[in-house]
Structure formats: structure tokens, C-alpha cells
Amino acid sequence: MVSGWRQTVMVLGCLVVGTTVGITGGDRVIAQPSRVALSLISLEVSLDAQRQAVYRAALESVSPGESVDAAVLASLRSHPEQTFAMFDGCLQYWVQLNATTADPSPEITEFDQQQHYANFPAMADGISIYRLTPTQSLVSIPCWLGPYWVATVNYLYTEPASEPANEPTITAVTLPTYDRTQRQVVAGTSSMTIGWQNFDADSQVLSLSHRYSGAGHCGFQATYQFETQSETRPETGHFILTEFREQPDCETFSQPNAYPRLYP
Q1: What angle, 0 to 180 degrees and rounded to 10, lies between the N-to-C axes of helices 110-123 and 35-61?
Q2: Cβ count within 10 A of residue 242
Q3: What's the CA gap between 159 and 168, in Å, rounded?
């Protein structure tokens, strides 16, 4: 009888040589997987192994500094499962991209994942980690660099009250925005921002600037203030929109700070 791990090697190896295989137990055939099933097994193992290797290398490449809190970084490295779940947030970019194609699909494909894993190491250097409260931090992860914008996902990372009994929790940050049609602030729907994002650690203000053109004379600029736990949001801290400016007309020539203020 062939041991479990050797069975796996034999199954995957048969994909290369094109042999029909039967997994046996003693003197009887337990299963004879189809070629499609074997391909899916191989793909799943391959993508998961690639995910683990890429994410671990990316996490190790992050260095403490002005925009990376050393203690929080150590906590992230001690809890790779939660950290990797945040890295997976970058796959949202591919969902949004697929939605704009001729054949829109909400599904994340094998190609999407491979593109993400190939691109992620180059973006990991831009990861920022800012402590907001004694137990809560803002983790911002750049996902994709466009011609004049960056796709970034944001999470609140809450460290456990005691180690090692409890695990940290992650909460996606969905920034509110201003709806010109409704003329009011509306809730965000995604933890991904598209634009240039900056966070001021002293004031705990996050600013987001998005250009509608490369010259930057049209677009929007939003400013957010972090608030700690409150009666209305007792479960976690959150960001509130404090100012929103927008210039939708790209025929004009104005800088972001001079965009018409729509809120407040």
C-alpha cells in the first residue's frame, strides 16, 4: 500500500505523464479520479502553495519605520492567518476590473489569482501600519498601481486582549462618500480605495485624492477623521467623512484643493 503523501505525489505526477491512475487501499481500488478532478486538485494545491509563499515573503519584506509600527508588525507576523486574509482583500481589484469587461463576472478566476500573486511582492513595500488606539491599528495595503492612482485596501486590526488565548480580529474599512445626486453622505460599499491615499498619524486624518484625468484638473478629494468607539458604533472605531470636494468637468483647470466643496 502506498502512503498518503506518496499517493498525492503519484496523482499529481500522472498529470504530466498522462497516465490513468487508481488510488488503492490494500488490494482494492478506492477511487479512480477523472482527469478534470485531478487538474482541479493540482490547481488548488498549486495556488494555495503560491499564496502562502508570496504572502510570507511579502510580510517578511516589510520593515518597521515611520509608516510601519514595529509592535503591530510583529503581531501581524505572529498571526499570519489574519494577515493573509487582509492581503486577500486585494483580489477585490480583479472583481471590479472584471465587472467592466464585455463579459462581466463577479468570480475570481485562476488567472486573476496568478496575476495578483505575481504583482503583490512589488506592492508590499508600500504597506503602512499606523496605531490608532492601544489595541487598534490601520493597515493599508496597496494592491495595484495605475497610471495616476493606486488601488488600496484598508483594515482595522484589533489586537487580542490577552495572548495567546485570543486571536486578533480584522475589520474592513468601508469609507463613506458623498453622492452628488442625493446631496448627502452615503455608506461605502468596498474596503478598496482608488486614488492617492495619505494618512496623518498625529491628527489621525486620512485623505484620498482621485484624478479623473492625468493632469489632475478634475476629480475628487475626500478627507476622513478617525473616531474611537462611540455610543453609535460601540463595536469598533471608524472613519467619518469631514470634507468632500469634486470637479467633474475635465475642461476646467483647477487643482484638487481648489475643487468645489460639496460637503459640508
Answers
A1: 10
A2: 14
A3: 5
